[in-house]
Please model this.
Amino acid sequence: MIADIGTTWTKILDGKYYHVLPTRQIIKEKWFFKKATGHLGKNYSSFYMNELEALARGSRKIIKQDSFVVVDVGSRDIKYVRFDNGSLTKLDWNQSCGATTGFTLELLMNYYSLSPKEIVIKSDEPFSPLTCAVFGIEKVFDLIINNVSPEVAIGSFINSIALNIYEFVGKPEKIFLSGGMCENIAFVKSLSLLTEVVTLGRFVLLEGIR
Amino acid sequence: MKKIGYYGFPPREIIDYYKSKGYEFVDLDIDFSYKNTEILPKTTCQIIKNIVTNAINKRDEIEKIIATTGKDKCDNGFFVANILKELDFDVIFTENTNKNRKDTPISDSVLSLSKKIDLIMQGIVKKIDTSVYKKAYNPKFGFWGVPPNDFSILDIFPDDTIVLGWVRAVEAEVPSDIELEMYVPDGLKIVFFVQSFCSKSILAKYLAEKYNGLYIDLDRNATISIKSKIEAFIRLNQ
Model:
């Protein structure tokens, strides 16, 4: 069994089968894996590879192109790698600010009991960057106070997150998206307004350590 | 023994003068793990914070401070020299404008990167025998920048990593030589490092973009993501 042990969710490959479990369960039940990546991977495996390297190796296996940009948007961080003509040319990892991460979005959506399909992504309003997640949340509250629905206000917030990510990875013409945000249709729709998006799902890092 | 504090790379003749007077040298750039003084803003380069924090904590040990205040250090080196003077330290204002480059055998050697940088910085105040170090003939990686506040990031690099940037200029005894500081040899994968809030970030970012390198900045201690970025950069380029 191999695992990508993220902050919130653990993605597991057991033979041919994929599973997603809450990381708190992995910690509580003291699971131990043959190989692991992810935020908590070091403590729960006999072989560890850091997430950025796993993303690079996994995406190289999955994407049958020599030049591409892949970004993984997780609960607490985003990371990306760029390959040109088969060689790694850029990589970065933003772990210190929640303005670009899934956690802030999940927090807001849970607070308003909304699912991604209920969020309204407007294509006719300008995208504005988000300098800080806390300021972003404050902006959402301001909009709602001014009679904007939570669905629209959070949609605007998602547009800002999408812009941050798009700029963070160097504004490519096409982005391969990895991680849990692939399942957030509002986010994918928003990012698709800025660039072509190909979703890879949640198991790219597992492919990297396979 | 009398002690004298210094920061940056003061002119050789000034170091030699105080050596001849029997002073022991204390490098104030180094993080001695004191609690940061509140005198400077939080958004100050950790090395500059170290200078002031160390000076205050070692006030009873050091008689004087040799301050580097020109292009050999940075604007903040000049500003803190004046602050330290205001705080009643005996500050000797200097600027190392030497342009006569020496060889850089340690920068180009096979040796752990942390040892290399440590030796180069020790070389400011003591003679280092460089004949024992072997030259790296097929290096793949370079480390560009200043000595990091947290040396643990250096352990990630292979031993034949070449030292570039300001540290190389220090070994060449020309800390204000911007041409040497910006020198980047062909064919290397390079990590361009700066301390957070250091004005050298302008150079590091520019050069990292130009040479497809990895730009890294850190404040006091390296985070997991900083180390992971360097680790991935090295492993994926090997």
Q: What stands out?
A: Chain A touches chain B through 17 residues (CB under 8 Å). Chain A is about 35% helix and 25% strand.
